Amino acid sequence: MIAEFKVRNFLSFKEEQILSFEASSDKNLQEYHCVEVNPDERILRVAMIYGANASGKSNLLLAIDFLREISLISKNRDEKTGFIPFRFDDTTIHEPGSFKISIYIKTIKYIYSVVLDADLIYEEKLVYYPGKQPATVFHREHNINENDYILKTGSTIKISPVELAVLKSNTLNNMTLLSGLSKTNIKFSVLQSVYDWFSKSLSEIIRPAHMLYRQTISNIVNNEPGFKQFVLESLENADFNIADIQVDSEGIQYNNGQTGYAGYDIVSDNTERYERKQVYFIHNASGKQTRLSINLQSSGTLQYIGLLGKLKSIIDNSSVLNVDELENSLHPDLVNYFINNFLYHSKKENAQSQFIFTTHNVGLLAEDFVRKDIVWFTEKKEDGSTHLFSLDDFDIRKNLSFLKAYQAGKFGAVPNLGII
Fold first, then answer.
1. Nearest one of 58, 62, 63, 93 to 383, comparing CA atoms
2. How many CB atoms lie within 10 A of CB 226?
3. 30: helix, strand or coil
4. Selection from 128, 136, 3, 10 nearest residue 67 by Cα
5. What per-residue string of b and e applies to 40-57 under the rule 16 or more CB within 10 Å gives b?
6. Exposed site from 283, 321, 356, 386, fewest CB < 10 Å?
7. What is the DSSP letter of 198?
8. What whole-number distance in Å separates Cα of residue 30 and Cα of residue 12?
9. How far apart are CA 121 and CA 58, in angstroms?
10. What is the dihedral of CA 357, 358, 362, 367, to 10 degrees?
């Protein structure tokens, strides 16, 4: 679980901005919203982010996703890191940016930080808490004079000088040590745990144009345990009138190894024979069932099916889901239902799952499940940079509607529209 994320000098973030998942003292629906990772700390499952267009709310998810990418993907020697500084300032455009994330893997806390620019990693550090006191796993600093970096491990870390040299030789100046580890067979358990978290527990950002349903359909086609039942039950509860999802197969001979994506696919069965799988949805209407191809399903239906597949995965694996513009192609009531579905199943399965999303659906602020500490806002400052702040920063009377206060401009983060 993410406890805190910090970013500075990246995209629209000029000054350091902090997204915190540490729960306040609010007791409202805490059994659904909060996970007690240790006796002294409760972590929130949800962060919902509001803001005007171009205020930087999507950039927050992109910053988290960028940290995930540089932690996992190795680079060629002359390849750029992909870093983009804040460009509306003559100073920051020439400076490195910084990222810092605090996470819990079960009950153990890890703090990982990186300072980099488009060409190299200046500093990288990992600290963890095997007990109440922090212990350094490694600290890496770039040596400008030698165009190399100094790598040191903590006193409690067990790794041989030979293994450390192998790890260093596989980690170029433009790569993180985490991504370098993936190129070796070194047994570095603490570092491997953090790499696995980025790889398996932090999902890739889902953008509005993402064809999300394809993975869900693929899981159903491949009979992934529990997937079809979960999707069908969730669709029924959301009043979609879809009774079943069926897959027809047809064997076809091919000579060129043609393949496609699951749904109306061609999936390899061996080197010469392929199997076309066509997906159909069985709809209940007027007292009878009608079989319709996946091609005839609405974009909203397919988007929701895709989200359900992700929901199933993050709950099963206690992982983090990042969605930009959650309401894309979805009715507001369906968005509300999906969030409640996430909270219900996360509590039911006692999952350390999290859901971060941006939205323009202000109606959610009127819902009973919303707590002050899960609501965040982005606002564009005069210099073009993004300011990130929480609803919990405001002293609000308990009987005051969050929605009415936001619409009245009490929190900012609303478009400044001119007169037509």
1. 93
2. 10
3. helix
4. 10
5. ebbbbbbbbbbbbeebbb
6. 283
7. I
8. 33
9. 24
10. 10
Q: For position 136, what pLDDT does the model report?
A: 97
β-pairing, 46-51 vs 354-358, is parallel
- Dist CA 233 CA 249 (whole Å): 24
Residue with token string 């983009």: 84
How high is the mean pLDDT of the chain?
88
Query: In this predicted model, which residue has the larger pLDDT, 276 or 409?
Result: 276
Look-up of token digits 């488009």: 118
Q: Which fold has domain 1-203+319-420?
A: Rossmann fold (3.40.50)
Query: Which pLDDT score is estimated for 401?
Result: 65
Q: Which two tokens stand for residue 131?
A: 């007990």
Which is nearest to 101 in space by CA: 74, 134, 64, 131?
A: 64
* pLDDT level of residue 400 (50, 70, 90 thresholds): low
Strand 354-358 versus strand 375-380 pairing type: unpaired
Structure tokens at 99: 């990222």
123-128, Cβ contacts within 8 angstroms, sequence gap of 24 or more? 124/176, 124/177, 126/177, 126/190, 126/191, 126/194, 128/190
Q: What percent of the chain has pLDDT over 70?
A: 88
* 244, 232 Cβ separation under 8 angstroms: yes
Q: Which helix (H) or strand (E) holds 343?
A: helix 332-348
pLDDT at residue 273, rounded to an integer: 53
pLDDT reading at 119 higher than 80: yes
Separation CA 83–CA 10 (nearest Å) = 7
- Which among 391, 335, 392, 395 has a CA at the least distance from the CA of 361? 335
Q: What are the tokens at 143? A: 């040596």
* Location of each CATH 3.40.50 domain in the chain: 1-203+319-420
192 residue type, one letter: Q
User: Length of the chain in residues, anyone?
Assistant: 420
* CB distance 4 to 20 below 8 Å: yes
* Residue tagged 């067990």 (tokens): 158
- Cross-strand bridge partners of residue 7: 17, 99
Strand order from edge to edge, sheet including 121-129: 17-20, 2-8, 97-105, 108-116, 121-129, 135-143, 148-153
* pLDDT band per the 50, 70, 90 thresholds, residue 260: very low
